[in-house]
Amino acid sequence: MSDVLLPIFSDQLSHGLASLEASEPGESVVLMMEVKHEAMVVPHHRKKLAFIFSTMRHFAEELRAAGWTVDYVALDDAANTQSFSSEMERAVKRHSPKRIWATEPSEYRVRETVRGWEDDFGVPVTIFRDDRFLCSHNDFKAWAEGRKSLRMEYFYREMRKKTGLLMDGDKPVGGQWNFDKDNRKPMRAGEEIRPHYQRSPDNMTAAVLRMVEEEFPQRFGSLDGFFYAVDRDGALESLEHFAADLLGKFGDYQDAMVKGQAFLYHSLLSSYINAGLLSPLEVCERVERAFHEDGVPINAAEGFIRQIIGWREYVRGIYWLKMPEYKDENFLKATRHLPTFYWDGDTKMNCVRQVVLETEENAYAHHIQRLMVTGNFAMLAGIDPDQVHEWYLAVYSDAYEWVELPNTLGMSQFGDGGLLASKPYASSGNYINKMSDYCSSCEYNVKKRVTEDACPFNSLYWHFMARNRDVLENNPRIGFAYKTLDRMDEDKVEALLERADSFLEAMPTAKVSDYL
Ligand code: FAD
Ligand code: DLZ
Ligand code: SF4
Question: 57 near 204, Cβ under 8 Å?
Fold first, then answer.
């Protein structure tokens, strides 16, 4: 019998977690559960599964070393009933707790499950606020209330003031809040790209890799070359490496894409921050120090900090403000299933193939690849945003619904009709050609629009505009496209729409759930 049963989920791997802070090792049993049900919600990438289980196992060891009793249910335990609630039920029988203390789960579905446990098991449940985020649900709600537009930029300024990051009194360091205009450089040919931090698997990770291989033999995602850090020490080393070696050029090349280069100057820290191995504030403070002490340019430091205290906190705010209805939104009424080449990369479109194959290898793609290649293509092709959401939730090691859903449904698919983004991130092949070297070795020609060898993004862009005219024409940020469309010869428009239709008709598609 123990006083407190303390479930900890895979993205709560922080020693300062609210429920741990509120408790004492002597009075509590920590419960950690590897369960197949979670792996079946969407077809999670196998490297992601390995990352999740290995980080959980390492964290459990660290807790034990710190004196906690940890009841750990491994995925391949014979007695494992494979869902959070059924495992909780077994744990309640084992430990007869007087109380259940949980830190708020990050995902709406899981929070509702935890809320039900008091009735399910007749044990009082306390849900602690997750104070690892810098903006609480209430603070976000208060910020959002009464505003006509919920643009991230204004929220971000509030967060700069609140945290004091890159502030000079009440003024932003460098005299501007935002240096984004300096962060759109394509990468020059021959520019050096420095290596990223990589951790070789230890024995515990090797055992997890074997287990994932055995349990999920058909799943998407390579297990080879597992490079992720799986504990706090490794995550801290990764942060140091980024701050010292890569951060300086993060800003300049934030939007660049280069063939065969999956990481460029991005940090690869999202998986560690989202799992709880690093706190968002400590990451930003390290970056601020690099700006003040090591000569890191302001566009790099500000750009990076904005992603974390701005975008990351903001999308979480939107998620909790708008769930559960948010998940069902489909402003553009898109209905197609996802192309099969999102899983096997079997397409002549070099940009899409590069991103899919890198995703398959690393469970990672950087932001512009996610937004302007696979995201942009899915929106232009009219893929059901729920299918797009399931794919993004499945394939990236940093993907948890609270952060993935607003980015996918809101930012990249315009599925919320402009709550998050003021205009759809729709573009023809021209943008990809400007920001990458993908087009130079593509079988399609980025300059052509209607011929068989024409870049499909070009005709799909106009197809997207034409079919969504009734809801987009009055958007001041995209209305110009309709002026261009209206100036085109009728024959030309018809040829563009035909080319797009025939491409879409020939495109093989399947439900995401077919890949479970
Ligand atoms: P860097 O480029 O080094 O950026 C630094 C940090 O800023 C990241 O580690 C991350 O913590 C934060 N960040 C940057 N952009 C965002 C953003 N838009 N929203 C929230 N945090 C941000 N990010 C996730 O963490 N999980 C997801 O599931 C996820 N899904 C996405 C889906 C789509 C369609 C798009 C367009 C973006 C998505 N993002 C997601 C945001 C962003 O692409 C990733 O955070 C980033 O690519 C992670 O790589 P990195 O750590 O190298 O980031
Ligand atoms: C995604 C995932 C997977 C595949 N497996 C587990 C698991 O076995 N145990 C666990 O605690 N969490 C897992 N997760 C994450 C959950 O689906 C969910 O996103 C988090 O619990 C956040 O609420
Ligand atoms: Fe992608 Fe079109 Fe460029 Fe090919 S030509 S890489 S399809 S943007």
Answer: yes
pLDDT in tens, 62-90: 999 999 999 999 999 999 999 999 999 99
**Cβ–Cβ < 8 Å for 45, 67:** no
Class of domain 4-128: alpha beta
State pLDDT tens for residues 315-354: 999 999 999 999 999 999 999 999 999 999 999 999 999 9
**Residue 170 pLDDT level (bands cut at 50, 70, 90):** very high
Query: What is the phi/psi pair of residue 43, to 5°?
Result: -75, 75
Ligand 2 pocket: which of 19, 48, 52 to mutate (most atoms within 8 A of CB): 52
Task: Please tell me the CATH code under which domain 137-202+220-322 is placed.
Answer: 1.25.40.80
Asked if residues 287 and 162 have their Cβ atoms less than 8 Å apart, the reply is no
Ranges of H-type helices in 259-410: 270-275, 280-294, 298-305, 313-322, 341-344, 350-362, 367-368, 376-380, 385-395, 401-405
Q: How many A from CA of 489 to the centre of ligand 2? A: 53
Q: Mean pLDDT over all residues of the chain? A: 97
Percent of residues, the chain, with pLDDT higher than 90: 98
The residue to mutate among 449, 450, 457, 458, having the most atoms of ligand 3 within 8 angstroms of its beta carbon, is: 457
Confidence of residue 2 (pLDDT cuts 50, 70, 90): confident
| Multiple choice CATH, 338-515, 3.40.50.2300, 1.10.579.10, 1.10.10.10, 1.10.1200.10 | 1.10.579.10
The boundaries of every CATH 1.10.579.10 domain in the chain are: 338-515
Q: Which pLDDT score is estimated for 429?
A: 98
Q: Is the pTM of this model over 0.70?
A: yes
Ligand closest to Cα of 265 equals: 1
Does residue 107 line the site of ligand 2, with CB under 6 A? yes
How would you classify the pairing of strands 167-168 and 171-172? antiparallel
Parts of the chain belonging to CATH 1.25.40.80: 137-202+220-322
> What distance in angstroms lies between residue 393's CA and the mean position of ligand 2's atoms?
12
